[in-house]
Structure formats: structure tokens, C-alpha cells
Automatic annotation (TrEMBL):
Family: Belongs to the class-III pyridoxal-phosphate-dependent aminotransferase family. BioA subfamily.
Classification via InterPro entries: Aminotrans_3 (IPR005814), BioA (IPR005815), PyrdxlP-dep_Trfase (IPR015424), PyrdxlP-dep_Trfase_major (IPR015421), PyrdxlP-dep_Trfase_small (IPR015422)
Protein's UniProt name: Adenosylmethionine-8-amino-7-oxononanoate aminotransferase
Organism whose genome encodes this protein: Sinorhizobium saheli
The protein's required cofactors: pyridoxal 5'-phosphate
Gene name, Swiss-Prot/TrEMBL: bioA
Amino acid sequence: MKRSPVWHPFTQHALEAPMKRIVATEGAYLIDEDGERIFDAISSWWVITHGHRHPAIMEAIRRASENYDQIIFAEYTHAPAEELARGLIAIAPAGLEHVFYSDSGSTAVEVALKMALGFFHNIGAPRSRICVLEQGYHGDTIGTMSAGERGVFNAAYEPLLFAVDRVPFPEAGREQETLDAFETFCASGQVAALLVEPLVLGAGGMKTYPASVLGELKRIAERHGSLFIADEVMTGWGRTGPLFACEQAGIAPDILCTSKGLTGGALPLAATLCTAAIFDAHLSTDRRRTFFHSSSYTANPIACAAALANLGIWKTEPVGERIEALAAMQRRRLRRFEGDPRFCNMRQAGTIAALDLAVPVGGYLSDVGPRLRAFFRERRLLIRPLGNVIYLMPPYCVTDADLDRAYDAIDEAASAFAAGRL
Ligand SMILES: *Cc1c(COP(=O)(O)O)cnc(C)c1O
């Protein structure tokens, strides 16, 4: 067979099984060319919140496409973007008053970094450093890779990555080390911003840490006049329980990045929200203080309409109850593995459940992830472990039966692994 010209993301084509074509999506399922229904237990890389093809979102897309395609977003504006910005400000943590649109989580974070540097530049007190949590992930562009954990994923690009100040991840019982390290970096007076994923480090291995630490980090940043950037690209839209994870710490960031669930996952869109102080630092008759950023598809009206429909769903449907129910479903099922020596580090943050497959020390770890993935795939489950970290982040429409099937398969996979049959 002639090979496909398509180059897939995060895919080693030399090792990958032939790809199944998906012909439709529905609720918690992907439907493939053979008519098989695959349970999307990771919400198609964390984007689908309510379920695939929520009728209200699809209807909004259809209607918007009757009036709009793409419209230049300088000089001109449009109702979907205006209404969405007001809607976002109304539900976001207090103090966020402006919305800058882009089209992916990575660009939302790039925009945030530029806003932070631009703020200090424009007020005439430039700062040069960005502080991050170790093991964080913020995207795959040069800037966001710089801020993320370094490793095999970005080794080739190292020459272009800029240096950031890394604070240790707040491991249980060692939270003070994290806070002290941040305080020390701040003392230089050069930290423009702390960039963090609130409560859960996603791609870094679904590592969770307490809201109290998040709150303390915010207070330290405040004391030193450093900006606090919440990368809520994964944690937003109810994944950890409340709409935004920051709410659990009772804090309001200076900048908030949202993308993935913003349109319910239906279309690419991102927003970087910021305070009036940051906007005002760019407001000047001096053109040099302009915020110099755009992408061609800034604020695509159809994507904005999809996001508005998503906001509508949050207002009119019992989304909070579904999230609570899902969190309870996950909690009950995780219990089955309590004290089970095949697993360690069971953890949960709202709708997200994760556990580590206990692996012997050694080189085997490197391909346990792909082996597990193949095992789940054979069982019509879309579960993509991060190394030996198995996690489930299903859409909120998931049923008990779907989750049972996923947990049964995890159980089976662990036994197969223990018996050397994986
Ligand atoms: C996925 C993710 C990003 C990057 O989003 P893309 O849309 O893939 O560019 C950034 N930050 C976090 C926390 C993410 O989980």
C-alpha cells in the first residue's frame, strides 16, 4: 500500500499500527470505518467537554456559517467575538477584563508571555525572567516548549529554547521547597511572571497538587509585583470540578489562558484574558506600545459562535451536576485499585482520574505506554497512557457502562503486564 502523505502529531510512523479512519463522532464515541464504536476516554486529547457533536454547538456552527467565514480582526469586529468576550469576562475570575483571541492553547500561552513582558516593558520597568513549575507543559511552539519541561520531546530544538527559572513541583510534604524556591527567584526583581497549570500538570503526567500551594504561589507573586499566568488550557471548563481550577484556590490570576474546552472542543479557538492594568499598559498614543501580536485566524466568527453556544450550555444545562456525577463515578471506580500492588499514586482532580502502573526499574518503561495503548485500542477504547501513567478524562456525557468497560480493561491490562503478556 502506498503510504499516506499525512504526517501525524506525536506519532512515530515507523512503529505505529495502520491508522483507523474515523467516519463520525457521537457523544462519548468515535465511529470508525468498520462501524466500530470507540469510547473516547480522553476526550480526543482533552478538548471535548460535553460530548462529541453537542446539538447546540453544531447548530450554532451551522447558523454562523450562513453569515460568516473569516473576517480580519483588526479594524473590524463582529458580534460573536464581542458577545463571547463579555460572556467570558462575566464567568472568569474577578479582575480579568480584556480578551485576546488566538487559535490554540500554545498561542494562548505565547500571547500571555508576550503580554507579561510587554507590560513591564511598557511601564518602563522591564523584567526578563519567566518562572515555571518543573514538569509543566504549555505547548509545542518554541516559546511554550521553553517554558515546559525539557526532555526527549524537545532535545532537538534546545538551541532555540530560552532559559526560564524552574521551581520544583510541589511534591506532597515538600510544598515549602516549591514556595521557597519561587520566593528566591522573585527576590531578583526580574520575574515578569509565574506561568503554571493550576492543580494538575497534564502532559507532565497528570500530577496533582493542592489548591493551598496555588494560592500561596499567587500571594508570593503579588508581593513581588510579578504577574501570575494561569494556563487553564486543560484544566478549564470543569475538568477539575469548577469552571476554572483557579477558583479552588480562591485566586484570580492576572492572565488566564483558555482553549481546549472553550468551544466544547468542536472548533479550534483560544482566548487569553488579562487585567485592565495589562491592557492599559499597552494603551497609548505612542504606537510602540501596541500589543504586537496577531494570527490570521484571530477570533474566527464561526469558532466564536461555537464557544458562545458552549457558554449557553453551561447556563442552561446541568453541567455542574454532570461533572459532580462523573467525579463520583471516577472516585468509586478508583477505589477498586486501592492497595493494589499493581498500581501506585492513585489520584483524582474532579473529572480526571489517574494511576501509575507499577513498573520495575529499568528500560522497559519507554514502551509500556505504546503497549498499553495498543491493548486498549484492541478493546475499542481510546486511552493514551503517558508512559506508565494511565488516566481517564472522559467527556461529561459518559455513562456508567462506558467507564466500567474502561476500568475493566485497565484491570486486565495490569494483569497482562504483571504476567509479562502485555
Ligand atoms: C494542550 C495544552 C496546551 C497546548 O494547547 P494546543 O492547543 O495543543 O496548542 C497548553 N497548555 C496546556 C496546559 C495544555 O494541556
